[in-house]
Amino acid sequence: xxxRRGDTVVVIKGSDADPQHKTIAKVLEVxxxxxxxxxxxVNVVWKHVRPSRRNPRGGRVQKEMPISAxxxxxxxxxxxxGVRVGRRYLPDGTKERYCxxxxxxxxxxxxxxxxxxxxxxxxxxxxS
Length: 128
Ligand SMILES: [Zn+2]
Prior knowledge:
single chain, mainly beta, SH3 type barrels, 6-stranded antiparallel beta sheet, 3-stranded antiparallel beta sheet, 41% strand, elongated, binds zinc ion
């Protein structure tokens, strides 16, 4: 999978897809094992949650669900659309993704980064 966290992509399949391939969205998380990606504002579902410490009132919460990586295309700035992506090696050996349409570089991809253990802290309303 050539998609990385933080990439800008275009959703091409599913109910949140744009037939023109112009609507861009940000990749929040990738799941290489399942070949899935979590895209901001795409495949949003209502989760019905029980009251918990994190969510004291419970109820309905909106949340993105992962979609298949095959249903998104990496966005190319130069083409202004989602494009097919190839990989090539630069003279110094680093791997680079490139747009198969205009062959512009789309950023280098190195060995898998070490997973950061930073927890996302959501500011919950304090109950006083
Ligand atoms: Zn391009």
